[in-house]
């Protein structure tokens, strides 16, 4: 039986795993990066990039159909499904190729193509080492281990029984053509993005969710605006339990008060962490009912063991920039164990790339927070571009007016959200932002009314007459 030894073993070669290995090696550790495929990151292969390629095609089709608003006549818009999917895969493969260059840059002997599982952790509190068994029967002994195994689509049993009629975000992008009709199961970020994109590409889409809240939106007013916008482009079946059954080469979905047949179904019911088969039960860690250990979000350490869990594998903040940050924290602390160092985490920040984009920033505000709202239904720049819909809600702490969060569903929210989260990271107040220059006419200008509402509610000093703010009615 071959034995391998290292200071830090990293299980999983995605965004978090690459960041962990890189930072551990930077801090002097001998590392091993273990992955069964080294296929590339989830973002490049089946996540961020292919989904945005589909969304970009959908935006082009939507804008062509809406051009009559500006006096531009295009005639009927034809969507060439095979061409859409061919470009998507061609560009996706370019992104994947770029991520794989990170594997080629690893020092010789660092990359281990195998599956790993724990086989006990001897002397956890006295400097003992972790023991990993690989599926090729090699044994890895490491001073510390970083788990960065990512997540995978959850396909409930009734949908799994449908075979290839059931799609996930890991199989959708390999379709040779667009389906004529599609049931989307799940109204989270993935379900919303793909449902709207496919609807704009001419697919008849029905979205099902057992809950009544789309996208995990916390603000009732934002959710009402989002729901209204989505209902204009697809059929929504919320608060129902869809039951699938195979009907030849189609899929029949029944729910409490109806049924319909679809060409395919996209299951977007969540992506739980990939922890099955890791042997966590042998480590002495306390596990919850889902087999998950408790992870300190400031150190990424599991309990007091030399085991760290980063990225989608821990299920805390399953977005790419957080996976990269968590991987770096885990890699550094794996080297330093047992002298781990807590890190200050960045402000929570998520974007769902619907149109308009849906953005959430910061923690849930409490009852003491001052709130400012900006309605983009008649905002100047949005109206010029025919995108005048949506709402922004900003939250500030009393009594200082420091910005602590925001919910946005409005044009340019993906860019506005960055401005707001940067301001929050800098500890800025509503007054601070109002004193900054704002060009006219822009979408950023639309936030000024919300900032002024916060200043009046706290109260804070409003900028003087030398700052005219947004022109009336715009």
From TrEMBL:
* Cysteine disulfide partners in this protein: 43-48
What keywords does the record list, in alphabetical order? Answer: FAD, Flavoprotein, NAD, Nucleotide-binding, Oxidoreductase
Cofactor, how bound (note): Binds 1 FAD per subunit.
- What's the cofactor? FAD
UniProt-listed PROSITE patterns: D_2_HYDROXYACID_DH_1
Locate the residues binding NAD(+): 186-193, 270
The protein depicted here goes by the name: Dihydrolipoyl dehydrogenase
The top of its lineage is: Bacteria, Pseudomonadati, Pseudomonadota, Alphaproteobacteria, Rhodobacterales
